[in-house]
Each structure stands twice: as C-alpha cells, then as structure tokens.
Design a protein that fits this description.
The chain has eight helices and 15 strands. The chain is an alpha+beta fold. Strand 6 and strand 7 form a beta hairpin.
Length: 335
C-alpha cells in the first residue's frame, strides 16, 4: 500500500545494544523508508525483561495503510506480554508459557487498539504485521502474524522461525472464506496482501465466528526452536521489504559473510534497473555522502538494507539482527 517517491529516502534509523552478562546477546537494528511515500515500520528490542533478565524480546512491525498500529504495538506490547504471564527462562515449561503469553498478549493488544479514539472514529484504518521472538538460554520462541519473517542461522544454514501468512495459503484461505471473505488476486477481498495482522478492523466484522477466526486475524502462529549453543549464530527479523528480493538462506549467507569478512568493498555498478535509477537520482541531488558508521551490528543491518535496495526492493525496510555467537561480533574497521 502507499504511493512511491521519485527518489528513495535512504537515511536510516540505526541502533545497537548488548547485555553479554545477563542475556548473553547483542543486537543491531536499522530501518529505512526507501521508495515509499511514508515510513510505516517500527521495531522493538528488550535485552532482558524486568522479571526475567535471561529472557529478551525482539520484534519488527510492518505497517500498512498508515503507521498508527505499528507504532502503538511497538510501544505497548511489552505491557501486554507482562500481563499475559510470568516468563522465566529457567522454567521447564518456558516454551509453553511463552507461547500462551504471545497468543494472549497479541489478542489483548488488538482488542485495545479497537478501543482507541482514532480507530473508533474511523480516522485510522491501518494495520500491521508482527514478528517477535522471545529468546531464553534454552529456547527461541517466535510469534508471527503476517508476512514479516524471522530466521535462525545455525552453522550457516537458515532455520525458519516463522511462515508467511498469505491469503492464498490453503489454511488461511479456508479461514477467510469461513468468515465471509474472499481471496481475489491473492489478496483478502482483492485488497489486503496478508491474511493475519493487527488492526485492519474492516476485515474483522464477521459476527458468526470468534475473534481469532476472523478473515484477518491477529492470532499468531508460534514456533519453538531449542537452542544449540554450539551451532546457533544469529537470528534475523525483517519486514517483507527484505524478503521480497532475498530468500531466507540468501539473507543468512549475506549477514554471515558481513560478520565474518567485515565491511564489503564499494558496490559495483551492475545494479538492477530500480537501483540504478535510484543511484542516478541520488547523484543528481548532489547531497554530500554521509560519514560511514563504525562497523558494528547496526552497520551490518544498514549494509543488508542497501543490498536489498540495490536488488530492487521498493518497500520500507527494517532489519533486526540478534547475535548469539559473540565470536562473530563485527570487528572494527582497520585504521
């Protein structure tokens, strides 16, 4: 959704953080508006939860039809998760508790969104995907609603932590039709390209089915992956602006090469038509090049985004990398 600009906005919002003593993790995150007329993404990173310092929460939210829902969820979700249950990474039933907490919290925040004045009045009709991970010392629990995606790199191989929720998937299509909707042009009612989302209440009005069975539902699909401390290297969470032009294995290999080999050389001129146009327009604006960020996890995220722009991605792009194997921590540029 949304109009496109004549020239992509390539400024990025980038951050890094680490808690090597408590959570044992570090992260980098970056977001770029790109060709879209509005930036509708948001993200969340919590190294160690208040009641569980060994459990961390990460999320990426890809808004559509506006940015209200994405921003609201990024800001408010930790409160809903805290109310949904007590999470302690050392508990034997952590994976089960985390799964239930994700389900409860996502449905709770969706109900709260419906009560917001902007939504009640009809002023805001936006929606947002949501992909989140809770990482404990022994498990990665991923809750996905929509087509943002999370993937684990295990010894260089991509391990899926989520499935994309597209309206044409058989199970998704069956739910949509049971709630009175249709799938046309691979979209819900010929319009929405995802079959699960927060917000989007125009698709949640069927009175004969429960809330989680609506044509578009906020109810997540949750995957649990036991951690392998000898092989697990990092997790990537990203919106579909990344996955539109790269598959999961390609992203894992690209990120791993950036971590192992360091900052790449300047990109060659053999660009796609879209990126070549972008580069030409950027040259014509004569804007002085920004100073390079020190080579850290945030810079790795920025490089992945630029690579996807080069490949022709036209969407907003947000990438969050959670590093578990600190031996792969980016090394500073040589002096």
């Amino acid at each position: 959704m949304g109009n496109f600009l004549d020239t992509p906005i390539t400024d990025k919002e980038t951050d890094v953080g680490e808690d090597l003593q408590g959570a044992g993790l570090s992260y980098g995150v970056s977001a770029m508006q790109g060709w879209r007329a509005q930036m509708e993404d948001d993200h969340l990173h919590k190294l160690g939860l208040p009641d569980a310092p060994d459990v961390s929460l990460f999320g990426v939210y890809d808004g559509h039809g506006g940015d209200f829902v994405a921003h609201y969820v990024a800001r408010k979700f930790p409160e809903h998760l805290s109310r949904a249950g007590t999470l302690r990474g050392s508990d034997a039933d952590f994976a089960t508790t985390a799964t239930k907490a994700f389900e409860t919290a996502l449905m709770s925040i969706d109900a709260e969104l419906l009560q917001q004045p902007e939504v009640e009045s009809g002023q805001d009709q936006s929606g947002s995907t949501s992909v989140m991970t809770l990482i404990s010392p022994k498990h990665i629990v991923c809750a996905n609603t929509g087509d943002s995606r999370a993937v684990l790199c295990r010894a260089g191989q991509a391990v899926p932590l989520s499935d994309d929720h597209k309206p044409y998937n058989p199970e998704e299509k069956a739910r949509i039709e049971a709630a009175g909707g249709t799938v046309k042009f691979n979209r819900v009612n010929g319009d929405l390209a995802v079959s699960r989302a927060l917000g989007d209440f125009v698709y949640k009005r069927c009175e004969t089915v429960e809330r989680k069975a609506q044509a578009v539902t906020a109810f997540p699909e949750v995957m649990v992956e036991a951690r392998d401390s000898d092989k697990d290297e990092f997790v990537v969470l990203a919106c579909d602006g990344i996955w539109d032009v790269m598959n999961s294995q390609q992203v894992v290999e690209k990120v791993r090469s950036l971590l192992v080999d360091g900052r790449p050389a300047e990109r060659s001129s053999s660009a796609s038509a879209a990126s070549a146009q972008a580069e030409q327009q950027q040259r014509e604006t004569a804007t002085p090049p920004a100073e390079k960020r020190p080579w850290d996890l945030g810079a790795v995220c920025e490089e992945l985004i630029d690579h996807c722009l080069h490949l022709g991605s036209r969407d907003n792009m947000s990438v969050l990398i959670v590093l578990m194997d600190q031996k792969l921590k980016p090394k500073p540029d040589p002096a």
